[in-house]
Amino acid sequence: MSMNNYVGIDLGTTNSAICSYDGSESRIWKSPEQNDVTPSAILIDRRGNKYLGKRAYDSAPWQHGNAALLFKRIMGTSTPVLLPAVNLIKTPEECSAEILKVLFGYLPEEIRNDPETGTVITVPAAFNQMAKDATMQAARMAGIGKIALMQEPVAAVMSVMRKRKADGIFLIYDLGGGTLDIAVAENIGGRVNLLAHGGVEMCGGRDFDRLLMNNIVQPWLLNNFDLPEDFSANPQFKTLSRAALWATERAKIELSAKEGAVVMLPEDEMRCRDLAGNDIYLEIPLKRQQLDELIAEKISESIDAARETLSKAGLTPNDLERIVFVGGPTNYKPLRDKVASQLGIPGSTDVNPMTAVAEGASLFAESIDWSSQVRSRKSTRGHISSGGKLALGFNYIARTPDLKAKIAVQLTGQVAPGTEFQIDSIDTGWTSGRLTIKHGATVDVTLAKTGENTFKVFVFDPVGGPMALQRTELS
Fold first, then answer.
1. pLDDT tens digit string along 139-195?
2. Domain map of the chain by residue range?
3. Lowest mean pLDDT among 270-284, 306-320, 442-456
4. pLDDT per residue over 271-285, tens digit each?
5. Is 255 exposed, middle or buried, given 0-12, 13-18 or 19+ CB atoms closer than 10 A?
6. What count of Cα atoms within 13 Å lies in the side-chain half-sphere of residue 153?
7. Rounded distance, CA 10 to CA 180, Å?
8. Which CATH architecture has domain 381-474?
9. How many whole angstroms separate alpha carbon 209 and alpha carbon 288?
10. What is the CATH number of domain 6-164+350-366?
């Protein structure tokens, strides 16, 4: 039985996503809140109740000692994850396993419980072997069956390849919550190779939030409430700082869709007072132009990092096909436009930056030979032979991103003159009609769909009688 369930998981520092692929269609499985991504966040309350994903993330500013966030950054190290409010110590692997379990739980039972399901989990290009081993360990702790790892930028390119069947070199600009990862990857006939990678350690969505906070939100709070100048560093106002940052991030995300937003948090949600005992609230209008000015320097830094990674690979912008944007902050069009125009490389609009990595991983899962211990790629060449006294075979490309494939006749002995063959598509009913058999004869077949296309081969003797073949199906 051929396995038709392939799963890709983007286990991210800030957000994670899961996608399945059945050989023709890919599908993102949404969180219970109907979001494409799930925050990589865990919260355990004093009664021992565990919350994962959005609910944990949204409660974390007010219950910081109960929450675990950003644990991907310490994967493969001996640094523990502390939850002091509930007196718990977890390993980064245990935390990642919790997130993997939640994501895997979104899948329908028949995919989840199928022992043949193959799952690919993505890791940053910069992950060392210890961090990779830790990711595998987390997947095993989550009870996920067949697992393989792949690099995030390669997955992103694979999801683009699905939309545009072009060979070429791509720049992956992956701007996440905490870091910017830049990679240069080449696609040749559906195989993607990483040529170089680089990036900026402290450049991500959280840095943008911090800039808004320091330059717009804090001055507004000091202006409107009785607060110490250094309230952001003052332990007494820790909750205020975290809640304000959380509200700032929400408004920033809104700017991806509109020209203006409001950093908004009413008194009853803020639950903080100033030195004079007044309830604190937030209501600060924010315009795209303000954000653009504040992040300009970080964006320039990211463009320099991209140029540096290109020169590492010995390439110039003219050698590149497209920029593939990945990560939440790249949903912001002014940022994409600036990066593309300054690098002089067109941006790709083929994929969703939030889910491209998970989707690419699910496509890659389909190309793995899951029966091999080393998880090697499936062979791209296929061959069927007649067996018996007919010394005849057919060679074909079994895996191709193209819309057409060639099937060639291989004749190692004699056949009676007038022997013919015919190839039919089981999927569409197309037929080649009867053709004379000779060594090297080829038939172009059209692939009706992505994924598996099945064809049947017939051979007829000189008087038109069907001849038996050992195997007649090509797929």
1. 999 999 899 999 999 899 889 888 777 789 999 999 988 889 999 999 888 788 889
2. 6-164+350-366, 200-339, 381-474
3. 442-456
4. 999 999 999 999 999
5. buried
6. 29
7. 16
8. Sandwich (2.60)
9. 13
10. 3.30.420.40
